Amino acid sequence: MAEVTQAAQHGLLRNRGFMALWAAQILSQTAANAVTSALIVLVAELTHNNTSSSFLILLAIIPAVLFGFAGGVIVDRVDRRIVLIVTNSARAVAIIPLLLAGDSVTTAYLVNFLVAAVTLFFVPAEAATIPSIVRRSDLLVANSLFTFTFNGAFLVGFIILAPVMVSLYGFTALWFTIVIMFEIASVLCLTLPSVPPTAKLGADVAERAVTETRRGIADAFHYLRSTPLVTWAMVYIALTYTLVAIAGALAPGFVREVLRLGERNVVVLVGPAGIGVVVGLGVLNVVSRRIGRSHAIGLGLLVISIALAALAAARPFADVFANSQFGQFGGLAALGGALPFFIGIVSVTAFVFGMAYSFITVPAMTLLQEELPEDIRGRVFGVLNSLVSIFSFLPLIIVGPIADVWGIAPVFVLAAAAVFGVWLAGRSARLKSVTNVTPGASHAQLN
User: Fold this and answer.
1) Cα-to-chain-centroid distance, residue 14
2) pTM listed for this prediction
3) Which domains does the chain have, with CATH numbers?
4) Residue 439 predicted with pLDDT over 60
5) How far apart are CA 412 and CA 253, in angstroms?
6) CB burial class (10 A; 0-12, 13-18, 19+) of residue 23?
7) With 80 as the cut, is the pLDDT of residue 387 above it?
8) Measured on CA atoms in the order 97, 398, 239, 316, is the torsion positive or negative?
């Protein structure tokens, strides 16, 4: 991986403080994503409807909408080392009700909300700690590495760790594993140097947070209006995260209604998707050099649109197979026994979806990191986080009820149409980045 190689060259891998913070990030972010993923399956098993799963993911997004503005301001007014220690321990404690209360929808909702709310303070504290333990000349490499592992933690936690452990060992084993991961992360943060607050925590925190956020958003949007390629890169990233949120909410229902399997077998979807992301990263390194990042993004959008349409078509085909001569045994035997390759086809489609996800997210994120000036980068990424929350929030309000009333297929059809619309709307900006290259163009535009 290029990020690790650069980190080694800059001596970051010999920086104990950096390595402790990096390890804490990997453990805690993987655990937090695994919590959400496992709770989606748990709620789906208990309720057998898609609306409940959508509401669960909404509870993970609502804290960002309610408290996101004040989180960074509060972090600046307390010792960040203490914030890192407390937030990891607090999330470990928040998991305990799942061990004590057993299978409970109310407990699942409460735990998901608490973990998401506490994570809001961990992330800015972590980002603000990096400059205090890393040399200024190493900041770019350090931030690139943290961005890479932040996305990797989502892949490992949400798509691999939770589904696989739940399928093989059950929920209790996963909850114990997550508690241990959070506690180890807290212990790692104990080894970090103290980072004194830059200002006192006072009653004006909320007001100042809103004022500073409003000014920062205004500056960011002013910059984005003059850089359509960067704007579209943000839209692509927000879109992919929204699709993952929708897929996460509907995956258990898809496995139950279309594949006629239990919700815990969601691994037949998310497993191949996760493998697809990893394979896509490797293929992307070769393909992007040949066709360029903009074309890679366009290809990824088209492939995801086709994959979503294929998943939508799987539902009527499943009904045909289940009601045909193959369906004489009924239920799982009708589909899985008489036509085992049907599940394989769906898994392959999920694999392709994962590859296409890499083709969109990685080039778009790289473009942002390379194109954004240092003095505007933080504010633009702040807008990006808001976009991700808003883009995810609005669809999740309706996809669950739509899936419960009309089925999952219409949701995938709408998603496929939305992705194709984004591909079409952003096509001119992508083509311009390839054809209108000036002698002073950046590497991102050239590639």
Assistant:
1) 29
2) 0.70
3) 1-202 (1.20.1250.20), 212-447 (1.20.1250.20)
4) no
5) 13
6) middle
7) no
8) positive
